[in-house]
Amino acid sequence: MKPEIWDWLQDHYFSVAQPTLKNPAGIYPLILASQQGRSDVVGFLLEQQADLAVVDDYGNNALWAACYADSQACIAALLNAGIGMNHQNAASGATALIFAASSGREAVVEQLLAAGADPKLKTHDDFTALDLASTRKILQLLAKLEA
Question: Could you report the per-residue pLDDT of 72-92, keeping only the tens digit for each?
Answer without folding.
Answer: 999 999 999 999 999 999 999
